[in-house]
Structure formats: structure tokens, C-alpha cells
Amino acid sequence: MNAYEDGLLRTPANHQPMTPISFLERAARVHPDHPAIIHGTFRCSYRQMWDDCRRLASALDGQGIGRGDTVAVMLSNTPPMILAHYGVPMANGAVLLSLNTRLDPAMLAFQLDHAQVGLVIVDREFSAVMAEALAMTHNRPIVVDFDDPEYPDDAPVPKGAGIGTLDFAEFLASGDPEFAYALPQDEWDAITLNYTSGTTGNPKGVVYHHRGAALMCLSNTIHAQMGRHPVYLWTLPMFHCNGWCYPWTLSVQAGTHVCLRWVRAGAIYQAIADHGVTHLCGAPIVMSTLLSCPADQKRALPHRVNFNTAAAPPPEPVLLAMAQEGFDVTHVYGLTETYGPSVVNDWNSDWDSRSASEQAALKARQGVSYLSLSDLAVLDPETMQPVPADGTTLGEVMMRGNIVMKGYLKNPQATEQAFAGGWFHSGDLGVIHPDGYVQLKDRSKDIIISGGENISSIEVEEALYRHPSVALCAVVAMPDPKWGERPCAFVELRAGQPGDEAALIAHCRDLLAGYKLPARIVFQELPKTSTGKIQKFMLRQRAALIAQGQ
Amino acid sequence: MNAYEDGLLRTPANHQPMTPISFLERAARVHPDHPAIIHGTFRCSYRQMWDDCRRLASALDGQGIGRGDTVAVMLSNTPPMILAHYGVPMANGAVLLSLNTRLDPAMLAFQLDHAQVGLVIVDREFSAVMAEALAMTHNRPIVVDFDDPEYPDDAPVPKGAGIGTLDFAEFLASGDPEFAYALPQDEWDAITLNYTSGTTGNPKGVVYHHRGAALMCLSNTIHAQMGRHPVYLWTLPMFHCNGWCYPWTLSVQAGTHVCLRWVRAGAIYQAIADHGVTHLCGAPIVMSTLLSCPADQKRALPHRVNFNTAAAPPPEPVLLAMAQEGFDVTHVYGLTETYGPSVVNDWNSDWDSRSASEQAALKARQGVSYLSLSDLAVLDPETMQPVPADGTTLGEVMMRGNIVMKGYLKNPQATEQAFAGGWFHSGDLGVIHPDGYVQLKDRSKDIIISGGENISSIEVEEALYRHPSVALCAVVAMPDPKWGERPCAFVELRAGQPGDEAALIAHCRDLLAGYKLPARIVFQELPKTSTGKIQKFMLRQRAALIAQGQ
Measured between beta carbons, which residues in chain A are less than 8 angstroms from residue B381? Predict the structure, then answer.
């Protein structure tokens, strides 16, 4: 033992579990009067937010929620969703599960059961689907209704009936703001649970820990160039990788959350102009929405706005149009398993002098590791050796570091596979360029990304296979100007069966959430390899031609 | 055990030791051609810097430096000093000791022996004192001379002779840039050693770990509002708390280090203008230096410059003058034991509308915890209970969190005392204001006890600073036969101002209770440490002699 290890131990004075909760504690102490949340006519200061988080933790404690219990939320980007990111772990160390609000009842029921959810908070926009889901669960969580006072009377989606035994506002008010809230016992403690869309079989429950969440807060702040008091508009769903950890990140610089129930171009421009929004994130669909905004709904931007986008590389015309509109677009990449973005297209000022198309090509690359990711590499998954940095040799994108998940809940086999060889296997294929920037070449081949949501082609195929006329099928991504991608199905029919596109889509509608339905169904023989494997890459090319009307 | 703990273990894929070395790795990969270091006519890119750090690690390895060995440097703010911050720990996990270049031979010898230094790199500015020190050590380190090619021929301090067996340039060139450098095995591994100035007895060796250093990098970047590619001027000695961790911090945003051997006003203005400096740090003496710069040596600043200052609260006239010169001053506070600044006077925008004197009073407070410090409190050291947040009740300032040292090297008793009760005891006395901001009132040993009443030396100093003729002052206890102690003030006058003891005491009478008035005011230059801190213990000795009529 050397002298530097002799007796110099971790003690409470020099070692404390990292947690994003401490950033909110600090923001409330330093900037108590600064606006923390804006939602319609609702305003909340950091003092109030901190009190409310402690009230929520206290109210959950009152319902018997304890360490390692799961609290689910089925909420839009509204104030309770932000509070839940702090209040749930502060309730004796419970874990937050943010349900994807677009899921069908069966999938919701699976997640509620798998995570053994003890209490669920449901926005009345989703009470009907949640009621169906709860009817299917074995588990019986306590249900709390959130009746949003800001819900517009003339909303495109009418508000459903209450289905719970408790009302969120009363529930919150019942909590004690002086509650002795929990900080993690260990920074490795779980903070949230996020289910992947699941390419095969059931979705996997990705567990985040406090350490990773806290490091994401610091890294996001630096990568997104957030100065003092950023104003952040919630165009990215908070149920998606915990909104890339921004519900916690904003506390670092005491920023203001601007809530948004529905992503509509006019509302985005209005929020930016009214509240001086500095940052927002979203899938390419959000950029399309902005760019197709009718002129009479547009508002002048108060300053240049930082837009972080992921899911698909932004194409040149979109980048140019966004720049012209006043948005500085940064391309990031990550997975549910990496807390959202763990790779960033860090801009090199040497590239400023390149042509617009060269710049777009450079920006289309996924990029380099986030500050808190130790390693990003493209490896041959057989040998675990790096592929040459030549921009052409394909390998699997792998990561390791402190913003990789704790593992999959109750799924040791999947966890072991994901971490085989000491790296997290992204399942995405890519190349590494001579300058060290990584570029994806094939999203893990079965996934379709529509409006920022992952759709498993296998899930759609399974639905199709349930129809008696389907002999063989394959679903691939078809480019879509609005959604980025939509599923396109190729089907071989059983002998003598008619090909009825409308009937097959109607059949799928009974089995799948609306956004997962095939945009097109094409009846043809499927191209196969000599060993009988369907050649999806050929179908992808065909789908692209169909999308172009050819 | 709950499901979130079942089998979800730390693995190399999801848990890596945090270390600032990874920030340099990343900067060199992402911005290889960006300027990393400027020193006179010397330029070095991030690619070159990364190669040189690996060369240094390799060369140290070649000299048998291993894990837990100490490598000392006696260097100015020059390129080898920056390289050493990375290259030493990269050498099999060795530990860097930066020697205070203003120490006397006996103190240097003590530190070289206590830390069992295996190799020391010495700038030829300091070869004479180091030769004396080495003659006194029991330990016989390998000595490497650094002969700075940028050392001016007409330097005020002539360069000494070489005293080593190796030359730094050759030593570095002998290293292999492909060396298999070390990352820490554990983030709790030591990275550096810094001796406190030690007002009584032998200095204590403060051990920093990789975890704390890495967190300081992220926190410094955010608190100092460092955007992409900051340009940092080295007016703070890097031997002082590892330059508040800025040698590592700059790598986070791939910033440029601008070296400076001697802190001279003209050179500072020139560097800012020539290189577009965005940030610098320093003791109040650096602000005085800047403000007293002759007009013909001044250069126009290219933009507003961020100046972080510590050690003493910046007085109102200095803040106003600095703002007029184009510097945004942030007041930070910390100790060697907290990696430099762990407390920051985070500015509240509500204060913008206050008067200049109110703003100065608010800025004179030390402030709130750094992002990576879990807790900052003012506690009664007897009961360990918080004092009321009333801005008047005195207690001891205490900290806990991840930017508190690992402990004191080979000094378990001092470590235990420092961490008693689960908090780091700063030894500084202060109050906490109703808004949670902490303000120092005194070092515990600097309190003057007169007739049983505590007198804060800082309060008396603040009164003196309000007089226009006072440039710098320090108040200490003077033995008094009747009262036990009384304040004795030492004052440096502004150029051309007369020293009028009676007038100054009359001025204080308007601001202070009678028992707090200085018994004597002595006009003289104040003794300062190498980092610009006033050496009150010397003044205390002087005051004792004065009291004896000597």
C-alpha cells in the first residue's frame, strides 16, 4: 500500500452520493424567486417548486411508497411531470417510471405489472387508455388523476373522465413541505425506469442511477452552452429517456421550464417570443413542424435559439432553413440505455468556411462522445477490436462510461448481453471517420423512427402475421416528409387469398397504437438470401422509391 | 433487496473512474488543431499537448516512477507545468506535487522528504534555492532542469545554472507518444499533493483525488461561464491548489492556456489584447496590479473579461474600477482542502438594480456552494448545529461533498480532526445571511478578543478600506495589558497619500463601536505570501513588539 491510500478513506465529509436532486436544492436556495415553471397562465418559482417536490415526496410517503418502489406517471409535458422527476426519488428512494403516453393498453399493462407499480399519476387526456390498461393488470396501483387547470376547453383532444381515487392537486397539497426527503444512500441507487420499445418480445426496463443523471446534468449544461437562467421549451416528451435528463439539467443554471402539452408550430413560436426561450430539443419532426408553420402563426425570435435534435441526421435543406429561421441546430445521438444523448456532433470551427453542403454532411455525422462518456468506439462485435477509422468499414457502435444504464430490470440475460466484453452494445451499425467522428450507417436494422418514437418492425410484423391471409411479411422504414419515417409493409399472401390493403390496416388497428400502423402495404414476393433470410435492405430501397411516388 | 438492486452491478461498460485526463483525451480527439498552449513565441496544439503528456508519462516511467510515487515540480506558469498535471498521473498513477516557488530551502526540503519525492523538475529561475533545498534533504530525487527557451535575456530575475542530471526538453523527447498511459484504477486514487502554507508547525500535505478534480473541471466550466474555446491567462500560480484545477478545466471546452512567468500589468494587458483572453483568476493583488497599470502599458480589451478573485472580499472602489476597465469580477472562496474555490458569490439578477455600494456589499459575501459541493454550512463547532441564518451569529464555516480532499498525507490525526463530525472544518469563522449566502468574518485565529468581546478583524479592515488613502490593510490582535487584546492596523497607502494615524482613527470612529477602534495604525508595506495572501502571523509578531515598545 502506498501512502496515498493509507487511511485516506471516503467519509461523509469528502464523499457524498451524486444526485440531480442536489441541483434543485441549490437552485431553490440561490435563486428562490426565479421562475422555475411556466405552463399556460401557471407560474412557479424555484422556492415553490422545491416546496412542491417535498410535498409530493411526503404525499407519496403517506401512501406507503418506499425505497425501490415504482411510481408511474402517464403525463404530458406539464408541471406534475417535472415535479415527479424529483419528488418520486425524494420519496424514500422510490423510482419513477414515465409511461409513453402513446402506448396501447396492453403494453401499458405489461409495464405496470413488470415494474410492480404501486401508484400511478394519470393526466385526464389519457384516462380512457389507462382505464383499459388497468383493467388488464394483475397489479392494482393507487391511481391519482391530474386534472390540468390549463387544459383548453376547445382542445383537439377532449379531456377524459377521472379514473382515480385521488386528485393530484389535493394529493400534492396534502404533503408536508418540511418532509424529511430522501437523498440516495448510494449514487448507484436507481432514480428512474424507462422501457425500450423492444425489438423482440417484451420491452426492456432500462434503469438509470443518480450518478449518471447528475453527470448528464453537468454535461448537458456544457454541451448545450447553457448560460445563466436558460429558458427551455418542452417540445421533447419527458417520457422519452426522461426528456434527455433536462427536467434535472435545468436546475444547474436555475433555468425556466416552459411546458407544452401538444407540439404545435404556432404555440412553439408564441412560447419562444413570449418567454424568451433559449433552448429546445426534439426529433426532426419538430423541425418540420416549425418550418411548415403558417406565416400568420409565426413570431419573431428574440434571439438565436439552440435546437438539439436526434433520431435522424438533419438533411441539408432543413439545416439551412432552420438557420435562416434563427435556430442553431446541434445533432446529438444516444439511446434509452445512455440517458438520451451520449454522442454529440461537436462543431469544429475549422468547418465554418466549408460549403453549406459540406457542412450539412459534417453535421449529419453523429459525432464524438459526451463529456461524461468515457469511450465511444466502433468495434467488430465478433473480435471486439476497433474497425479502421476510414469512414467506410462497418462495425457496431459501442459505449462505456458513467452515462450508461445500470442495466435492465429483472432481465439479467439481456443485461449481460448488452454489456458483453465490457462495452455497451448499441445495436447500431456505423463507421468511424479519420477524425474520430462516428457516423451511423444503419440504425439497428429493425427499428423505425416515426415522430421521434421508435417502432419495432417486428411488432408490426407480428400483428400482420395474425391475419389469416399473410404468409410472409417484412416491415421497413419508409421515408416520410412529416414523421421522418413510417412503417411500410411488404406481404406475401397465402395462396388464393386476396390482397386487401385497407382490410389489413384495419386488422392492425385492433392490435397496434395508431402511430405504428403501416403507411403502405405492398403485396409482392419478398427478396431472400440463399439461406432464406429476407433482405430488408432491398425492401428499404423499394420503400424509398415508393415514397418518391415511383 | 429490491429489484433495482438485484444484479444491476457496476461493470466496465457502465462505470468508469472519473478523471480529468479523459477531458484532455477528448479535446485532443475532437479539436486536435486548436491551440492548447501559448507561451511567448511557443505554440502547441491539442494534438501536440496530448502527445507530449504521453511522452512525459513515458519518460517518467523510464525513470522508474510508479503508482503512488511522488513527482515534484518547481515551475512557473509555463508549458511543462501544464503537461505535468496530466503526464504525472498518467505515469502509472504517480502523484504530482507542485512546489510553491517562493518557499525557502528548509521548507522545500521538508516537503521533498515528507512526500518521498522520486523526481523533481526545476525551472532554472529556481535552481539556486532548489540546490540549497536538495542539500538539506535525506531523500535524493532525480533532478530534471527546465531551461525555458522563452526566458527573456533581460529578465529582472536572471536564470540560474542547471543543477540536474537531465534536461527537460531531452527528457520529454525521449518519451514515447504511444506509451500505454495510466488512467486511475479507482476515481478515489490520488492525483496531486498540495502543501498548506502552515501557519503553525509543519505544513500539511493535502491529497486530491481524480473524482474531485474531474468534478471541479465541470463545475469551474459552468461557474466561470466558459463557452467553447475559452482563452485563459495564467495570472494565478499553478502551484496554488493546482491553479484551482484550471490546468485540467481548460480541456473541457478545449480552451487555450496563455502562460505568464511573471504577473506584470503590461504583460497582462498585452496578452489579453493579443490572444483574446476571456478568463483569468487571481488574488486581489492582481486587481491592484491591473488598476495601477501605467496608461502607456495598457491595451484595449477585445471584449469583457471574466476575472475570478479569492482570498479577500473585493472592496467597492476596486469593483467599480475593475468594471470600468472591462472586467466582470466574480468572488469565489475556498481552501487548499477544497481544490480551490468551493464557494461562489453567485450573482442574483434581482441585485442588478441595487446601488453600487449595496452591490459591493452583496459581492463581498463569499456566497453559496459550488455545484459539486453537497453542503456548505455555518455551524457551532461545539454542538455541530447550524447557527441562525441572521447574518450576525458567528459560527465555523464547514463543507462536505465531492470536492473536499482525500485527507492529509501521513497525518491521520489532522485528517480526523479536519473531518470531525462528518464535515470539513474550514477554520474560518462566518455568518449565514437570511438568503443562505455565507460571509466570512475571520479565520478563527484572526479573531481579536478585547475585554471578552470578539472583534472581527475583517470588520475593522472594511472600515479602513472606506478611507480613500488606504490601498491595502490588515488588522491583527495586539497584546494589551488592560483589555487582553486590541486591534492593531497595518496599512499600505495609495501613492502620494499621507499617513495620518489620527485622521484614520477618526474615520473609523464614524463606522465602528469604540472598543473595535485600532489602538495603533502602522504605515508599511504588508508581508505577503507567494499567492498574494497577507501574512498576518508576521504582523502579529510585529504588533507584539510594538506593544512592548520596540
Answer: none
What whole-number distance in Å separates Cα of residue B526 and Cα of residue B539? 8
Q: Read off the DSSP letter of residue A260.
A: B
Nearest of A306, A232, A215, A308 to residue A23 by alpha carbon: A215
Contacts of B212 in chain A (CB under 8 A): 14
How far CA A316 is from CA of A313, A359, A433, A544, in Å, comes to 9, 8, 20, 18
Of B371, B419, B436, the CB nearest to A11: B419
Q: B-chain residues within 8 Å CB-CB of A113? A: none
Q: Write the burial class of residue A399 (CB in 10 Å: 0-12 exposed, 13-18 middle, 19+ buried).
A: buried
Is residue A478 within 8 A of residue A545, CB to CB? The reply is no
Chain B CB contacts of A32 under 8 Å are 435
Of A506, A510, A508, A470, nearest to A490 by C-alpha is A470
Asked if A405 and B30 come within 8 Å (Cβ–Cβ), the reply is: no
Backbone φ and ψ for B216, nearest 5 degrees, come out as: -60, -40
Chain B nearest C-alpha distance from A224 (Å): 10
CB contact under 8 A, B4 and A409: yes
Helices B356-363 and B316-325 pack at an angle, to 10 degrees, of 100
User: Between these two residues, B171 and B549, which has the higher pLDDT value?
Assistant: B171
CB pair distance less than 8 Å for A8 and B407: yes
Contacts of B219 in chain A (CB under 8 A): 218
- Whether A4 and B225 lie within 8 Å, measured CB to CB: no
- The CA distances from residue B309 to A268, A485, B196, B344, in Å, are 41, 53, 19, 10
Nearest chain B Cα distance for residue A182, angstroms: 14
CATH 3.40.50.12780 is right for the domain spanning A21-373:
yes
Question: What digits encode the pLDDT tens for the residues A214-245?
Answer: 999 999 999 999 999 999 999 999 999 999 99
Cβ-in-10-Å burial (0-12, 13-18, 19+) of A281 comes to: buried
Q: Per-residue pLDDT tens for A142-162?
A: 999 999 999 998 888 889 999
| Helix and strand totals (H; E) in chain B | 17, 26
**Selection from A3, A46, A6 nearest residue A24 by Cα:** A46
CB B332 within 8 A of CB B345: yes
Distances (CA, A) of B146 to A59, B100, B175: 65, 16, 16
Contact B374 A95 (CB under 8 A): no
CATH of A447-547, one of 3.30.300.30, 3.40.50.1240, 3.10.150.10, 3.40.50.300: 3.30.300.30
Contact A368 B30 (CB under 8 A): yes
Helix axis angle for A21-30 and A46-62, nearest 10°, is 140
d(CA B167, CA B181) in angstroms, rounded, equals 22
Q: What residue in A sits closest to B423 (Cα-Cα)? A: A13
Output the nine-digit C-alpha cell for B32: 486536435
| Domain locations in chain A as residue ranges | 21-373, 447-547
Residues 6+ apart with CB under 8 A from A502: none
Residue whose C-alpha cell is 512526500: B115
Number of CB pairs < 8 Å for A and B?
A: 173
Q: What is the tens place of the pLDDT at every residue in A49-99?
A: 999 999 999 999 999 999 999 999 999 999 999 999 999 999 999 999 999
Instruction: Judge contact between B98 and B242, C-beta under 8 A.
Output: yes
Residue keyed to cell 432464406: A532
CA Rg, chain A, in Å?
24
Determine the pLDDT at residue A444.
Answer: 62
Q: Of all helices (H) and strands (E), which one includes residue B470?
A: strand B470-480
Element (H, E) at A38: strand A35-39
Does the beta-carbon distance from B222 to A9 stay under 8 Å?
Answer: no
Chain B residues near residue A189 by CB distance under 8 angstroms: 4
